[in-house]
Design goal:
- Two copies of one chain form a homodimer.
- Chain A is of the alpha/beta class.
- The first copy, chain A, contains 14 helices and nine strands.
- Chain A has two domains: about 160 residues, 3-Layer(aba) Sandwich (Rossmann fold), CATH 3.40.50.720; about 120 residues, N-(1-d-carboxylethyl)-l-norvaline Dehydrogenase, domain 2 (Orthogonal Bundle), CATH 1.10.1040.
- In chain A, about 50% of the residues lie in helices and about 15% in strands.
- In chain A, strands 3-2-1-4-5-6 form a six-stranded parallel sheet, with helices on both faces. A three-stranded mixed sheet of chain A has the order 7-8-9.
- In chain A, about 60% of the residues are buried.
Amino acid sequence: MPDKPRLAFIGTGIMGAPMTRNLLKAGYSVCVHNRTTAKARPLADDGATLAESPAAAAADADVVMSCVTDSPDVRRVYLDEDSGVISTVRAGSLAIDFSTIAPAVAREVADALADKDVAMLDAPVSGGDVGAQNGTLSIMVGGSPEAFQRARPLFEALGKTITHCGPSGAGQQTKLCNQVLCALNLAGVCEAIVLACKAGLDPEPMLAATSGGAAGSWSLSNLGPKIAAGDFEPGFMIDLIQKDLRLVFESSREAGASLPATALVHQLFAAAQADGLGRKGTQALYRVLADLAKLD
Amino acid sequence: MPDKPRLAFIGTGIMGAPMTRNLLKAGYSVCVHNRTTAKARPLADDGATLAESPAAAAADADVVMSCVTDSPDVRRVYLDEDSGVISTVRAGSLAIDFSTIAPAVAREVADALADKDVAMLDAPVSGGDVGAQNGTLSIMVGGSPEAFQRARPLFEALGKTITHCGPSGAGQQTKLCNQVLCALNLAGVCEAIVLACKAGLDPEPMLAATSGGAAGSWSLSNLGPKIAAGDFEPGFMIDLIQKDLRLVFESSREAGASLPATALVHQLFAAAQADGLGRKGTQALYRVLADLAKLD
């Protein structure tokens, strides 16, 4: 048994690559796999080893980690009979999935791994590519308290706010709540700026006056100035928050919840997608509301 | 001319009384008037003098201040021919209104006072009774830069974030943007907690996990824990945010803006009022959304 656990990291995209770099910097050995191999290759220069499949990456790992896009990707990475983690993973090892997926799928994959004596944590993150690079992610964790304690040193290499939210699926459920909050905070920022501009008010002192008080939010402080400056580059893309809001509504349907305000913002984001803004930052929601008000 | 300007303060309610106390503490002499005289009387013990009418309070003042509820109250306090400030106010003095009212009414009253050679600032505040007590209000100011500079020492005795937002009415317009932000941030908090509770997630770790990141807001940090604890006491009452949102929609109609998400939340607050929750804190919006989801 080595001093530090040997790691596998599957999915080295915009989030996974900088997370892997932070683990390498913290002195871990990491074997990486990415569906598009070319994207994983630069990590070899930083000391990672490359694997051809999730199964190959997991074969020698004490902890298997993943960060992919959606529920079917997580199912494939872990459960595929030929190439999935489940075909090689060693009893007693630990799995941590950082993707944002349906809580029900997180529980399904965790149950399948439990049959192989592998504990699994769902650990979706918030904080974007900048948070991944700087190791300042918020990490919302579901799973057993024992697995959470075991994973804590790894989380501390990746993030700042690390919260155990409950049993398997609770991390995903918390992330969905997080996205409800982000969507509505942003809608407020967009409508406030539309109202300001249409009423002839300079949005910049408005943002300065409101950011520090009871109206304040991360969205207001970080996305408000981008909107005022006409900067709609991502950050976090509309197509991705729409994927997350789809998961919110799958979850709310199963749970029997009604989320009217989130539903409205989901539809306004759909209008942004219809207008070709899906790959812009979420703050491009402003363009839809500005168009409604015939603002330039 | 005394070292410090002599002040009048009209409207010594839940906001005006602690604001007056902070001015007295800062060494100003203050003559107060309140429509219900009994409410002003305790301020006499703190050193204020009492006046029978706005006109009487303003007669000897260098700066006339007010903090009342709505546009008609401000019109009456300043413009009533018999008892209003305008009947006694001295040329060269300054007027500052801290109420939240229609930007158009703020401009109308400022124009009427300008004819008497009195400069007026609209200076609505955010931060609630606690901010008024602690002198930590956010103050959003509209009016001339000269009048703003003249009022600055007074603002500094009352608040922390003091912003000159533009010409007459711009303070009110900014406050309306502030209320749009508060309404939508709160809707997000309520729907996130409903989703958490219905999905069987403990809301407290959810609030802890989301408050420090991209989902964070003043509403989440301050009202989220109250909702989780079942505390719906005001704070800021639903009836008052509904008054402010009415002003938002008057303004957006005049300006030609469309605010669909704010409109939805305004209607959800109306459901709360219909359910007898108008005098509860704004966080009682949660009760409407919890009822929709048949949560206890």
